[in-house]
Design goal:
Blueprint: E1 3-7, E2 13-17, H1 22-31, E3 38-44, H2 48-59, E4 63-70, E5 75-81, E6 89-90, H3 92-95, H4 105-112, E7 114-118, H5 131-139, E8 143-147, E9 150-154, E10 164-166, H6 172-183, E11 188-192, H7 198-209, E12 213-215, E13 221-225, E14 233-236, H8 241-253, E15 257-261, H9 269-278, E16 281-285, E17 288-292, E18 303-304, H10 316-323, E19 329-333, H11 343-348, E20 353-357, E21 360-364, E22 373-375, H12 379-391, E23 395-399, H13 402-407, H14 411-417, E24 421-425
Parallel strand pairs: 2-15, 3-14, 6-7, 10-11, 18-19, 22-23
Antiparallel strand pairs: 1-23, 1-24, 3-5, 4-5, 7-9, 8-9, 11-13, 12-13, 15-17, 16-17, 19-21, 20-21
The structure holds uridine-diphosphate-N-acetylglucosamine.
């Protein structure tokens, strides 16, 4: 069994390159199904979720060529060409590992007018239904039924038709899917209460580079004028704001000083503002964002997760790790997912004091954390344990680390280069 072993106590110091964003790369890859021409993506991170999605796209008929394999941290360049869709079914075996693979339903319906896609899996952080996706696609004229764990969708009139879609609450995935589907619909689609996450903007700009007509990018009202066909393009995956925020918190927690190379401050302003309140110093440089830890002590700050531009739920666990060593009490409210406090029990193994009341965690900071044996439960929770381990006294062993490989590229290598003592033990690097 592979584990990560950390000897805590070293302040992070140096340069840490930020990879392409997983949550942008996945929908961009899926968008390649919308055209019979080649979509070439640059700055694709080397992650298990990317490899899993390649299998899913190949099953639909995509020819995938790795043009450069991203050595020396440059990011991969991969081309995706789906001349014809071979299969409009995305089977359970392929889809169950990762929720985002469900999103193929958008391009399949738009291009082939039918899809049979297994209901999604992914991190166990709540029920995560797909009702908004299905209501949105129905509004564009799809007929949908559920059959033995599969969503079966058809467009009886041959082509989706533009319409007004208003999501009852903000959903990143539903916005991606309806936006992709609407690019090839007849007429105009307006998405209201659309997600405004930077990854949505990245996808919209890529779709426009492929010939789509999307306006309102960056706002909560997207207007998509349908076109007859999309063509190929070459496009860059944006830098990962969650990876950026994670390492920023690790730097603050260890009182370090790191340059997060390639990071874009505007994609995580809320988190950086909070870190300043915690006592960290943040400065924007032309080549990234510099974070240096509080020179005296970590201040407690209350945080509530919100859709973008608010504080991201994907940084909640990492922020909680940071607050375990604050001087005082902080409250963290999770408003996006109903079951996203699984890391609390694991953080307690380090000696952290955290209590939960519904969606609110109350953290009473302690002077010192002690290294421990812990278990990774989901993607972002896993990395909160790594951060805690970096700041803890003594040895930490993180078990069940496959979640980390889904979302954090070359984690041990990047942290070690900044002076941390982190190594993978028990098996070779999963690459
Ligand atoms: C995406 C991100 C994930 C992030 C999340 C919120 C990717 C690959 N994943 O997940 O890392 O934590 O956004 O920023 O980009 N909901 C419904 N019905 C639906 C759809 C969603 O009730 O049909 C609910 C969800 O249960 C959740 C909330 O809406 O409570 C937001 O979920 P959503 O934004 O859709 O998250 P994902 O797209 O799955």
């Amino acid at each position: 069994m592979t584990q990560i072993r950390i000897l805590g106590g070293n302040a992070l110091s140096g340069e840490l390159p930020i990879s392409g964003a997983k949550n942008a790369a996945l929908p961009l890859m899926i968008a390649s199904l919308l055209t019979d021409e080649t979509l070439t993506l640059r700055n694709v991170p080397r992650l298990a979720d990317v490899r899993q999605l390649e299998l899913i796209l190949a099953n639909h008929g995509a020819e995938i060529v790795t043009l450069s394999n991203g050595e020396h941290g440059a990011g991969q360049t991969i081309s995706f060409t789906t001349k014809t869709i071979k299969d409009t079914c995305a089977p359970y075996e392929l889809v169950s590992a990762m929720r985002a693979s469900f999103w193929v339903i958008g391009p399949l319906l738009a291009r082939e007018h039918e899809a049979r896609v297994s209901l999604p899996g992914g991190c166990a952080i709540g029920t995560r239904p797909v009702d908004f996706y299905l209501d949105g696609l129905s509004a564009l004229g799809a007929q949908i039924e559920i059959d033995e764990g599969y969503v079966v969708a058809r467009v009886p009139h041959g082509r989706l038709v533009g319409n007004k879609v208003r999501f009852p609450r903000v959903s990143v995935g539903a916005t991606h899917v309806v936006m992709m589907a609407a690019t090839l619909a007849e007429g105009t689609t307006i998405i209201e209460n659309a997600a405004q996450e930077p990854e949505i903007g990245n996808l919209a700009e890529c779709l426009n580079a492929m010939g789509a007509k999307i306006s309102g990018i960056g706002t909560n009202r997207l207007i998509i004028e349908g076109v007859d066909r999309l063509h190929g393009a070459t496009f860059d995956v944006l830098p990962d704001r969650i990876e950026t925020g994670t390492y920023a918190m690790a730097a603050a927690m260890t009182g370090g000083n790191v340059l997060l190379r390639n990071a874009r401050a505007e994609t995580l302003r809320a988190a950086l503002d909070i870190l300043e309140h915690v006592g960290a110093e943040i400065s924007e440089a032309p080549d990234g964002v510099r974070v240096s830890g509080p020179t005296d002590f970590i201040r407690p700050v209350d945080v509530e997760t919100q859709p973008f531009p608010g504080f991201p739920t994907d940084l909640q666990a990492q922020f909680m790790a940071l607050m375990t060593r604050a001087r005082g009490i902080s409250k963290i409210r999770e408003t996006i997912f109903e079951n996203r406090f699984m890391h609390v029990a694991e953080l307690a193994r380090f000696g952290a004091h955290i209590s939960i009341d519904g969606q609110v965690a109350t953290v009473r900071g302690v002077e010192d954390l002690r290294g421990a044996q812990v278990m990774a439960t989901d993607l972002r929770a896993s990395v909160s344990l790594v951060i805690a381990g970096l700041a803890a006294r003594g040895e930490t062993i993180v078990n069940r680390i496959y979640h980390l490989d889904r979302g954090f590229e070359r984690l041990e290598e990047k942290l070690s280069a900044c002076g941390a003592s982190v190594e993978r033990i028990g098996a070779a690097h999963a690459d």
